[in-house]
Amino acid sequence: MEFGTGALQAVHDPPPGAPGVAPGQTPETVAGFLAPRDKAFRDHLAALVSDGTAFVHHGLDDGARAWCFTGKVLGLTPVLRVRPATQAEGALLQRLDAALHLKTETRRAAARAESAPLAVLESDAAGRVTWMNAAARRLFGPIALRSDLPAASPLPQTHHAAKADQTVWLRISDTDSPAAPFRLTYAEVMDSTVRAEQALEGFMATLAETFAHLESALAVFDHDRQLSLFNPALSDLFGLDAATLALRPSFREFLDALRRNRMIPEPQDFPAWRARLIEAATAQSPATFQEDWSLPSGQILRVTARPHPRGAIAFVFDDISQTVTLERRFRAELEQGQAILDHLGEGVAVFDSSGRLVFGNPALDRLLETPGFDGTLAELVAVGASVLGGAEQWSAFRSFALAADRAKTWDAVLPGGDGPPLILRGTALPDGSTLLSILVRGAQAHPWAEASRMPDMRVG
C-alpha cells in the first residue's frame, strides 16, 4: 500500500486479518487502526510520510495479534507493508509489551507510595534503610542507610526525630517475610491519639479521686454495658471485691453478683426483673430512673440511673434505711398527734402567717356549726362572731394572729349567748403560725382556763 496523494493506495491486497487497512485512508487513520496504544508506530509513520524515513516496527493490534510494519520510500512514494509477525517475533513482542506494562505499573506504584501520607521505609536484610517515601523523610529526617528505627511493636513507641528535639509517638508495624530480601516498615504518627488517651486517663483518674470521697456508691457502665468506673463505696456497700470490679464485669454479671450477696430484692422471676431494670435504666429519656430496693436484710437502697446520650449509663446507690426509718417514725408521730387533736373536746385551728387554715379538728366544726370548715382566718372570724358572738373578741384575735410583733399568748372570753361562756386562746408558734383554741369555761376545761384565773385575762 502506498501514500501517493496523502491517502492510502492499495498496491496489493493486505494480508488476511490486517486491522483497518483500506484504500483512501490517511496515515493518521491507519496509525489509529493499526496500533492505537503504540505511540512509536505513530511517530514512525509520520516521519515516513513527511521525511521519507524508513522503519521496521513490530506492534500489536486491539486483539493482541502481532504484526510487522515496514515503511520505506519507493521512488517518491512512501510505501507501508504489513505482514503477520513470525512466532518468534510475536513471543518477543508479548514479552516486551508485558515489560512495558510492568514498568508503567511500577512507576505508578512508586508514585502512590511516594505520595502516601503514611511513612513507609524499606530496609535490607542487615537492617539498613534503603528507601523511604516523602512522609518518612519528613518524619525521620535525612536517615541514610542507618538501622536506628524502633523495633516493630503493636504498641505505640517513642522515637526522636533527627531534625527536632521532640518526642513523637509512633505505631510501628512491618511486613517482614523470610521469602522477601527486604522489609517494609510503616510508621504512623499517634501524637493526637496518645494525647487524647493521656487526657482521658487523667480525667478518669480525677473522677475516680473525686468520687472516692462520696458516701453514695457509684457505678458507670459504658455503651457496651461494661463497668468502666466505680468508687470504693460500691465495694463497701455491696460487699464486692474491688479486684473483681476492676475486671470490668458486664451489667448482667454485676446484677448476678449482687443477687449472690442478697443485695437486691427477691423477685419471683429474676430474669424478667433484670430485663425490666436494664430496659428502664437504659431508655433514652430525659427523665432520671429511680427505684427503691427493699433488701431481705431490711436495708433499703435508693437506685438512681441516668442514661448518657452516647450509650453510657451511671448508677448511684444510696442507703436510705435511716432516712426511711425517720420518715416512718415522723409520719407515725404526726398521725398520733392528729388522732389526739381529733379527739379533743376543745376546738383547735392552726393558721399560717398569711391567714390560711392549716388544720382544724372536728370539735371546731361542731362549735362553728360548719361541718368540714376549710376557710381563711377572715372567714373563721366572721363565722365565729355570727355563731358564737363576741365580734370584738374575734376581731382582736385576728389582729393578734396577723401582727408582726406579738406576745406569745392571747386570751379572751366570749359571752356564750344562751350557753356557757367560751374561752379563746391564741398561741404564737415558732414558724409564724397561730394556734387557736376554743373551749367551754368550766370544770371540764384545762387548768389555765379555770374561773380563778379569769381576772388575769385581757381583751385586745
For the record, the count of structural domains works out to 4
Helix content: 25-40%
CATH topology of the largest domain: Beta-Lactamase
Number of helices: 13
How big a fraction of the residues is strand? 25-35%
The name of the CATH architecture of the largest domain is 2-Layer Sandwich
**Global geometry:** elongated
Structural class: alpha+beta
Give the total of beta strands. 20
Largest sheet: 5 strands, antiparallel
Q: Extract low-pLDDT stretches.
A: 4-12, 143-165, 443-460
For the biggest β-sheet, the strand order reads: 7-6-10-9-8
Calculate the mean pLDDT score and round it.
Answer: 77
Q: Radius of gyration in whole Å, from Cα? A: 52 Å
Report the CATH superfamily of the largest domain.
PAS domain
Ends distance: 142 Å
Per CATH, the class of the largest domain reads Alpha Beta
